[in-house]
């Protein structure tokens, strides 16, 4: 039987970096479900489809194909109609589009089986917003990974400045807060801690300490 570890939490808590490192250390497959919503968001942007509930999004979902694969390094690759869009979905615009389109029930239904099927055959660490509450309610271990909005915005700011991008801390903090609000207040599968999830707060921890915290939580419980 395969083991599933669900890691949920707000944007910028370091979920993907931490989950990826923990998966490597524990020999699990890491699945970043945010990439799937970003891919659907990209499809909508390309077609000029508004990211709201309705016929336009529904017919787009009938036409597109989203697949999750892995490259030779074991890294996740997302395909939109066969095209590798893993890099294209990482812009701030794609983040905002993903946040909006992920509130559309038909989009969540469209991506449900894809996510569940991944956990059927392999030992996975899956990160997202509703993994412990909706996608894998029977996951063996559930972690809610968070940090203060200011700490998350500061990390993101540093990352973008290091990439040479011209950004303002205040704009990033606003973005973080808007996405938190969208993710927590949508009607369907809102971001919230599962009753049986362990809370991991990384506000005061650096990356290495955060990875250790998560690996320890997993080791203590498995
Ligand atoms: O984790 P991320 O920033 O790549 O996610 C992009 C958006 O997708 C985010 O605003 C919320 C949404 N999302 C979701 O609704 N459910 C998930 N399981 C993962 C992401």
Polypeptide structure, described:
With 222 residues, the chain is α/β, with parallel strands linked by helices. Helices cover 51% and strands 16% of the residues. It has nine helices and eight strands. It has helices at 15-26, 34-47, 55-63, 92-101, 105-121, 131-135, 149-162, 169-185, 207-221; strands spanning 4-8, 29-32, 66-70, 76-80, 83-84, 124-128, 141-146, 198-201. The strands form two sheets. A five-stranded parallel β-sheet has the order 2-6-1-7-8. It has a three-stranded antiparallel β-sheet with strand order 3-4-5. A hairpin with a 2-residue loop joins strand 4 and strand 5 (83-84). Helix 7 packs across helix 8 (169-185). The mean pLDDT is 94. Bound molecules: 2'-deoxycytidine-5'-monophosphate. The site of 2'-deoxycytidine-5'-monophosphate has 15 residues, from helix 2, helix 4 and helix 8.
Structural class: alpha/beta
Count the E strands: 8
The oligomeric status of these chains comes to single chain
Bound molecules: 2'-deoxycytidine-5'-monophosphate
Please give the order of strands in the largest beta sheet. Answer: 2-6-1-7-8
Tell me, briefly, the overall form.
globular
| String of helices and strands | EHEHHEEEHHEHEHHEH
Mean pLDDT: 94
């Amino acid at each position: 039987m395969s083991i599933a570890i669900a890691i949920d939490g707000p944007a910028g808590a370091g979920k993907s970096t931490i989950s990826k490192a923990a998966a490597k250390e524990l020999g699990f497959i890491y699945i970043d479900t945010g990439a799937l919503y970003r891919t659907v968001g990209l499809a909508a942007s390309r077609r000029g489809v508004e990211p709201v509930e309705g016929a336009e999004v529904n017919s787009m979902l009938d036409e597109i194909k989203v697949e999750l694969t892995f490259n030779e390094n074991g890294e996740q690759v997302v395909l939109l109609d066969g095209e590798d869009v893993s890099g294209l979905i990482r812009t701030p615009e794609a983040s905002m589009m993903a946040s909006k389109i992920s509130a559309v029930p038909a989009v969540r239904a469209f991506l449900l089986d894809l996510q569940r099927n991944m956990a059927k055959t392999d030992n996975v660490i899956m990160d997202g917003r509703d993994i412990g509450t909706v996608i894998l309610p029977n996951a063996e271990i559930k972690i809610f990974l968070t940090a203060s909005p200011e700490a998350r915005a500061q990390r993101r700011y540093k990352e973008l400045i290091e990439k040479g991008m011209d950004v303002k801390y205040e704009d990033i903090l606003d973005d973080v807060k808007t996405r938190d609000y969208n993710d927590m207040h949508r009607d369907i599968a809102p971001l919230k801690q599962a009753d049986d999830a362990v809370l991991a707060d990384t506000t005061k921890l650096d990356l290495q300490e955060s990875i250790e915290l998560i690996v320890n939580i997993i080791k203590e419980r498995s």
